[in-house]
Amino acid sequence: MLQKLLSHKARILLGITLVLLLVLIRAYEDSLFYDPFLNYFKSDYYNWPLPKINNIQLFFGLGSRYFLNMSISLAIIFVLFKDVEAIKFASIVYLLFFIILIFTFFFVFYFFGETNKMTLFYIRRFLIQPILLVLFLPAFYYQKQNN
Fold first, then answer.
1. What single string gives the DSSP state of each residue in 46-112?
2. Running DSSP on this structure, what letter comes out for residue 35?
3. Looking at residue 6, what is its pLDDT?
4. How many domains does the chain have?
5. Global confidence as pTM
6. What confidence category does residue 134 fall into, taking pLDDT thresholds of 50, 70 and 90?
7. 8-state DSSP, 129
8. Which residue among 36, 86, 103, 113 is least crowded, i.e. fewest CB within 10 A of its CB?
9. Which residues touch 99 (CB under 8 Å, ≥6 apart)?
């Protein structure tokens, strides 16, 4: 087992580096991305009205963070599994999720925002966190073990 780990030193190091990049995105989210909801959801948001937003900046802030997380997540999947078909599948799922989630986020914000703050919180959470990576890793591992 140890010999097998040592033979894959570069892959392990690259995987750890990519995970650290995800951590750095989270650590510096305030300065890297426009997102007035970062501080809003950290506070007692049930008693406060929704923050004023700049639609274009928020779209590009959420989008750039999503695509940065997506790119790093796809790189992690490739480093771990070396499966181009898995990358293609995951890319399509990521893109479909982005379209659905970003549309739903702005729809809920403008039509149901004050009454559905938790819905906004969870949709935004899917947009800004690499949650799909947590779902893909065990799925691709299971698929690889069964092939």
1. GGSPPPP--HHHHHHHHHHHHHHHHHHHHHHHHHHH--HHHHHHHHHHHHHHHHHHHHHHHHHHHHH
2. -
3. 61
4. 1
5. 0.87
6. very high
7. S
8. 103
9. none
Residue 34 three-state SS: coil
**Residue type for 78, please?**
F
CA distance 122 to 112: 14
- Residue 90 tokens, joined: 């995951």
What value does the CA radius of gyration of the chain take, rounded to a whole number of Å? 18
| Amino acid identity at 64 | S
On whether the CB atoms of residues 48 and 40 are closer than 8 A, the answer is yes
Residue with tokens 């750095």: 24
Domain limits for position 36: 2-146
Which tokens hold the place of 111?
């039509």
Residue 22 amino acid letter = L
Please report where in the chains the tokens 């065990």 appear, as a residue. 138
Q: How confident is the model at residue 37 (pLDDT cuts 50, 70, 90)?
A: confident
> In the block, which residue shows the tokens 């989270």?
26
Q: How many C-beta atoms surround the C-beta of residue 86 within 10 A?
A: 19
Cα 70 to Cα 1, 39, 62, 106: the distances in Å are 31, 23, 12, 20
